[in-house]
Amino acid sequence: MRYSKRYYFVMKNFSSGILYICYSSILFLSACTYHKDNIDPTEAICTDTIQNVSFSKEVNPILTANCTTAGCHSGTNPQSNLNLEAAKAYAALSKRGSGYLDTINPTSSVLFSSLMSVSSPMPPKGRLSACDLKRIQVWMQEGAKDN
Length: 147
Fold this sequence. Notes:
Blueprint: H1 5-31, H2 41-44, H3 55-67, H4 89-93, H5 110-116, H6 130-141
């Protein structure tokens, strides 16, 4: 039985397409693995209702207690040129173009990304509590006001 050139062309492209789909599916499925680290700890663990967050009463004390100790983000030569001392923290974080704050997508901000980093966690002594992280996130969502 003789097959036309068109039959060979169609079969060749069909089998190539099937192989491509199978290969792509294998790559896609192997890339989809579950990691417990992908769970947002601010949603999964903190059960407190957090709203109307005050920078001076809630966020600034968190930053002071965790970021200015041992001279990290304080003094005349703060790490990353970011001074988080009580009197200077808001001005440093809200500096135009710094990216430290993002009121539209707080989890994409430099501040929040640094606090959640796995490779270079801030603060280096250990991650903030889930409720402290949530408090900072909500503060940004509420407009990151200097209140």
